[in-house]
User: What shape does this take?
Amino acid sequence: MKFKEHWVAYLFLSPWVLFFLVFLIYPFFLSFQNSFLDINVLNPENTRFVGLGNWITVVSDGKFWLSLFNVLFNQVIFITLSFVVALLAALMLNEIEFMASLFRTILFVPVITSITVAMIIFDFLVSPVGPIQENLLGIGMLDAPVFWKFEQWLPMPMIALFSAWKWFGVQMIIFLGGIASINKSLYEAADLDGASWWRKVTKITLPMIKPQIVFVLTINIINGLQMFVEVFMNFDLQGGPYSSALTPVLHLYQTGFEQMKMGEASTIGLLLAVIIFVLTTLQMKITTKGD
Amino acid sequence: MIKNQKQQWLIYGGLIAASIMVLYPFFFMIMNSFKTGSEIMHAPNAMPEEWSLRGYIEVFKAIDLFRIFGNTIFVASAITFLNCLLSSMVAFAIVKTSMPGREFWLKMILSSMMIPGILFTIPVYMMMYDWGWINTFRALIIPGSISAYNIFLLVQFMKQIDNAYLEAARIDGAGEFRIFFKIVLPMLRPALATVGILTFMNAWNDFMGPLLYIRDDSMLTLQLALFKFQTNVPGGNLEQLWAMTTMIAVPVVFVFFFMQKNFIKAFTGVGVK
Assistant: This one.
């Protein structure tokens, strides 16, 4: 009789179960199976079992590790920059009452802008003929225009700068939510002890918003390692000069959709998922230590 | 916490500076859309010499912008409608019924958010290819019709609905269907606005989906159309490019200013255990 009683509940749950089976479980196994096959979409009848072949190819391919290095290089700059900016903005917004919601709204605008639009604007602003470089040349801070897209070490920091501008708003809002839930009496007690603003931030605010900080870092790692549109729009599928803008997803896209090697591309996807999983678990272990 | 007037001024100064840095790029976008192509190239810092609408006019001649807007609105609306309906049904089953295994399902949904999407790019593409879904809107809509994050948000909201309403209705002999559609959904309206807006925005801004699955120019969505427009004739259609960029960005920002509370709600409260 149990089932009859709950049939509506099961019916309501069924969209998720279907989604779970069709778009999560099945593709996961497909991906796993593909990683042992040599598949070319154009002539699928030639598919053959290659065992660990794809895995060996991907792991021994310097390009995969280079792409991983690039994206980590990018993330170190992005995470530091956006974390500092978001935290400062949240702390400032928390101190004011008049027009707080207007400032909060303005600072959130880049988040709702699409990457495509934002990238076109950014590309113009920092291009060798764009306004920023023209101003820098004008005041003599720059001797010659910088073609950052042709340099080996500039693409990743530039994209990190772009991403920090684009995404700091999300982190700011999450931090604000955390700060708002801190018990005010903690600050009052600190005020009685004559604690400075800096001391209150480091001893009360930061420790109290640790769950938000962990959440933000985790999301950043998960999203950051999957960077694609930013580099795809600016650099060809090879990933720019010296492959310095090649990211793992660009590498996967190139392998799967240009070279049509779906098996190898699946392997890249799986390997990257494993790396993301390990990094997020590790990061959560470290940041939640002592709780 | 800072009551000192001087420090307050310092904070407002900081916030104004930050706002200018955030809005500065948009200012250039709008200025460029009114400039002529050569002005964009040669006088990047200057204001438009004479405000020209040529970019706006030319871009409508160059591509079928109405159709592209229509495609995007259709896909994003379908995804938003399905998400609001399906995700709240799942949340209802988990929060408001006595179905066994509710905790288990919720845990499973939450942990599925931790799986990186990249894992599914290739296998889902192959599935779509086998099913003949390439170059159809189905490929964009169906996989996006339900999301773990939306279920999670709606579960949080649904927990706040008092069970007394539901009990009263059950005593009156209302079935679960009636309870869901007549009582819970209407009470969930503010939450659905939040989920809906967030979903619509993500679908509107989606790039990877259309890039993988859409081939025909008649089926392009805005983001992919903008990208193709940027790469097709480099430098040759500058004024049109900026007019198009402005037309895509401004409505979104405009809507956001009216509905910012709903956006903000979707991000606060997450990460709190």
The two ends of chain B are 26 Å apart (CA to CA). DSSP finds 14 helices and no strands in chain B. Chain B touches chain A through 89 residues (CB under 8 Å).
